Please model this.
Amino acid sequence: MKIKIGIFDSGIGGLTVAARIFELLPQVDVVYFGDTARYPYGPRSSKVVQKLSYQNTRFLLSKKVDFIVVACNTASAFALDHLKRKFNTPMLGVIEPGAKTAVRYTKNKRVGVIGTVGTIASKSYSKAIRKLDKNIRVFSRACPLLVALAEEGYINKKATTMIVQEYLKPLVRKRIDTLILACTHYPLLKGVIARVMGSKVKLIDSAEEIAFELKRCLRAKRVTARSNERGTHAFFVSDVPEKFVQVGERFLGRKIRRVQRIEIDRY
Amino acid sequence: MKIKIGIFDSGIGGLTVAARIFELLPQVDVVYFGDTARYPYGPRSSKVVQKLSYQNTRFLLSKKVDFIVVACNTASAFALDHLKRKFNTPMLGVIEPGAKTAVRYTKNKRVGVIGTVGTIASKSYSKAIRKLDKNIRVFSRACPLLVALAEEGYINKKATTMIVQEYLKPLVRKRIDTLILACTHYPLLKGVIARVMGSKVKLIDSAEEIAFELKRCLRAKRVTARSNERGTHAFFVSDVPEKFVQVGERFLGRKIRRVQRIEIDRY
Model:
């Protein structure tokens, strides 16, 4: 049985998720939608994020996908439950896989979470972690400037290190041993974040964890693609494709072909 | 005759324009719309900015405004001509007033422009300036991180100074004597920008210039409000009002009352 996965994200950040899915599940067909006309979702309210996510899901379903991956942390935090109530298609968000892995890794039961204003305000990670282990203490911090820095490629700069230091100082002080990078843009700043946190703190990349979880889900549902066939990858965006292609190739780590602009408001 | 001005902006930046208009024209009624569900406009394409600006204008016209001020530089650059073709209501954008003032100020005929990726790519300021004086050389630079820094209140920070220095270094080298702050967020970083450019460089704040121009326009049209009456000010946004009120008061320099959320997609 041929399976088709739909992934949506506020823009290009979710390509870090797509990259891991392409690696782990090379046989499946993937339709990726990046909402580049309306990104970023991080500073928006739950009401607006739910509406945008609803339209994105309707678009992916119009492409006949069998499974939906909500690659954006803010959308997973604010809209996943809402979407599950509205649609029957199986769905996976980034929060539970990241939370599970953090629970598995932490030894001192002190976990940090960094993300957008929306993701942190939703307390989704704290709730997911404490549902698994009530004894874990979760320390969260919104880092609103990191998305812009990652997106502009402002990576190996002293200013970026200073901003990361200021954001992470309180978490270092709390002696966490595990830090969830709860935004798909942050893996691009993994080097700086690792240097600031020190080598003893394990960094959890939500992009990796959701790809593993997706593989488990498909296996559990006995959905496996024929292993000798390579899946097709199609990309859709809501603004013109140029910047998506240019910046996106840095996120995806390979060439992006077949990108098409759609009018997302119509869905 | 009672006059009502409609102002729209991608979000809160245009409040620096509203503040100047309230000061200079205390008698006029003002309806402000901040497109907080879809900001920022800076990185979006002209196609998308035109569509958003069209909806914003339709909303303001539904409020029976007599005059429209496009307070956002990116929207002025990409959409003002488009809007003028679609609507009969008189309109004013931020670009011409800023360009005019720069032409008046420069002595060595070397003018700098800093703005969003969209505003700079449009070359609108260069064109407007060179239409007024062909001998002026215009040096432009997109500074995409400055909006996020201003919005997050990351003002008096060393990291911000370093980023501003890196952006402005090429303009300092070009020995400009006038610099247009072609984004409504930049006045919040005026202190840092002034320190980096040095005291000999005149900074032009597009918010101030458009307010003066509006006053001249209204006078030319013989539209003057009765001077003993104070105008009313109403604010509308497309996302929930909380953040707009909180951050906006820093931009406006006074309390914001009467903010209402609307569904901008319906216009």
User: Anything to note?
Assistant: The interface with chain B takes residues 36-38, 43-45, 47-48, 144-145, 147-149, 152, 154, 157-160, 162-163, 166, 238-240, 242-243, 265 of chain A (CB under 8 Å). The two ends of chain A are 28 Å apart (CA to CA). Chain A has eleven helices and ten strands.
